[in-house]
User: Which sequence fits this backbone?
């Protein structure tokens, strides 16, 4: 699989390590009333879709940036890649 | 029809005209007491034990393709009960005991061969960890032997003992571990279940669940609605997709692809199952002579039933590093299967929030060895509504309660288990 790195262009997926579902960006608020439930769901439950999946890849053998890659889990086709930092910011994180 | 040496001889002398199909091809009835979704090893074993042990007469297995087309026919056939943790070891040993009597029990030759499983260690720390695991096994009454370098050399002189980077310091041997012909397991359970009245219905995909007032009344299928008192789902890599149809959208499971490889047939050389402790590589030799080997999962979510080249390279490098002679063998076939990787690497056999709907999954890449016990325990749960004593830890709520069974200590990251 070739990942279109937004800064470095097409890179072999072998240069990356994989973390999983990009929803892991949305870490729950630890002070919320229902934090225990939310952390259970956040840590242990997955959508696990057959089809398009947004997921976190770490460019470990490269520039060490985290990417959000959109990939089809049925065909392994990679549709797009963004910097995870940008995705997190548009979701209101780390302002 | 019973299979026996005498029957083989008689058929050989009479032109093989007396063989009959090993199971029927029934149309689905309108209602069953218990429906098992998924005709893999686990689903078929569940149906077999429901009929045989729990005397259930109205049972059906619904399979979307043909039985044995899933992981039960794709795995590398290794069986063992060399686990460390209490939640696991009694269950896997129960499975091993069932394997030991299985062929007589279901009157089918599954070529169960207890040729030994040897895990190699390459550092002092790894040897300490193996000693601990071996002791844990023995405390559970399971056979385990710690071999030193010379012990390993006697068993497998062809390994690379000169590696300065990854010296072979010894290994943990489970003599009762081994291999089983995987297709025969599916066929044997299917035949055994069928002869006890279970309907095995192939080409029948479950496309939905009929749930009213929180109770599951049956399943929608490509062959129409089939009503049921209880429904048990055992669909391995498709767990997420099937449970979503019942409104259970999120499971503690990710689907990943694992690849396997077979070389050309060679003269007998590899005595049992050997696993490399410094890379992702394990190997055995089939009775036909092919070297059957594999390594790690590809590491990213997948439903594709085929993997990618980086892992092929990684597995072959592991093989070359451990037994350089393998470089002379040609690879004949390779394929992939979809694993239901759970959050702690251990399985789930439990009821769900939907009344009458039960779940069996999260087997990761080690569910073949579990087939007999998984079937028995799932049948126990379906028949009695109580977990079997060896499967009490395999609950959904263990994640909420902090009771994970994390053999590898990897945490909630399925691609590392
Ligand atoms: C390459 C590889 C190597 C492995 N090596 C080993 C090993 O050496 N030792 C070991 O212990 N384990 C091993 N495993 C793991 C083991 O094979 C699995 O954990 C186990 O087979 C899963 O259970 P099963 O047999 O019931 O699954 P499957 O055979 O996959 O059965 C599930 C069935 O459900 C059916 N299904 C899916 N959706 C539907 C639907 N909607 N309606 C009806 N039916 C449906 C599928 O068609 C399939 O037949 C390996 C797996 C792979 C892929």
Assistant:
């Amino acid at each position: 699989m070739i990942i279109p790195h937004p800064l470095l262009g097409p890179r072999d997926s072998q240069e990356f390590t994989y973390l999983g579902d990009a929803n892991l960006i949305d870490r729950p608020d630890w002070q919320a009333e229902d934090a225990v439930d939310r952390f259970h769901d956040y840590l242990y439950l997955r959508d696990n879709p057959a089809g398009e999946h947004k997921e976190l890849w770490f460019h470990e053998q490269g520039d060490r940036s985290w990417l959000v890659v959109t990939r089809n889990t049925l065909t392994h086709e990679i549709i797009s890649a963004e910097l995870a930092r940008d995705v997190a910011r548009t979701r209101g994180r780390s302002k | 029809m019973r299979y026996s040496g005498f029957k083989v001889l008689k058929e050989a002398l009479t032109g093989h005209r007396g063989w009959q199909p090993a199971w029927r091809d029934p149309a689905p009835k309108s209602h069953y007491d218990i429906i098992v979704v998924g005709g893999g090893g686990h689903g078929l074993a569940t149906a077999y034990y429901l009929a045989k042990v729990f005397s259930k007469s109205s049972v059906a297995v619904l399979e979307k393709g043909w039985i044995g087309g899933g992981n039960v026919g794709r795995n590398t056939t290794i069986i063992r009960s060399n686990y460390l943790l209490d939640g696991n070891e009694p269950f896997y040993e129960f499975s091993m005991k069932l394997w030991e009597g299985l062929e007589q029990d279901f009157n089918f030759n599954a070529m169960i061969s207890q040729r030994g499983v040897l895990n190699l260690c390459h550092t002092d720390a790894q040897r300490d960890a193996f000693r601990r695991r071996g002791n844990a096994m023995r405390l559970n009454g399971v056979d385990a032997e710690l071999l030193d370098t010379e012990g390993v050399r006697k068993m497998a002189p062809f390994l690379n003992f000169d590696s300065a980077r990854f010296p072979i310091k010894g290994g943990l041997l489970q003599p009762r571990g081994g291999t089983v012909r995987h297709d025969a397991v599916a066929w044997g359970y299917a035949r055994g279940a069928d002869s006890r009245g279970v309907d095995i219905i192939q080409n029948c995909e479950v496309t939905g669940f009929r749930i009213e007032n929180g109770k599951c009344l049956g399943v929608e299928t490509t062959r129409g609605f089939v009503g049921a008192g209880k429904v048990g789902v055992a669909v391995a890599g498709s767990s997420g997709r099937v449970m979503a149809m019942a409104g259970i959208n999120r499971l503690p499971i990710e689907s990943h692809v694992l690849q396997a490889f077979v070389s050309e047939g060679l003269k007998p050389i590899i005595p049992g199952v050997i696993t490399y402790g410094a890379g992702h590589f394990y190997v055995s030799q089939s009775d036909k002579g092919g070297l059957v080997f594999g390594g790690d999962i590809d590491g990213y979510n997948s439903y594709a039933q085929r993997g990618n080249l980086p892992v092929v390279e990684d597995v072959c490098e592991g093989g070359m590093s451990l037994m350089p002679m393998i470089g002379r063998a040609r690879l004949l076939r390779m394929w992939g299967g979809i694993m239901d990787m759970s959050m702690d690497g251990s399985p789930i056999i439990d009821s769900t929030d939907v009344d009458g709907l039960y779940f069996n999954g999260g087997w990761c890449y080690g569910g073949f060895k579990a087939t007999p016990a998984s079937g028995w325990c799932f049948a126990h749960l379906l028949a009695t509504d109580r977990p079997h004593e060896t499967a009490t830890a395999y609950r959904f709520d263990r994640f909420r309660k902090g009771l994970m069974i994390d053999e590898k200590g990897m945490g909630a990251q399925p691609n590392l288990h």
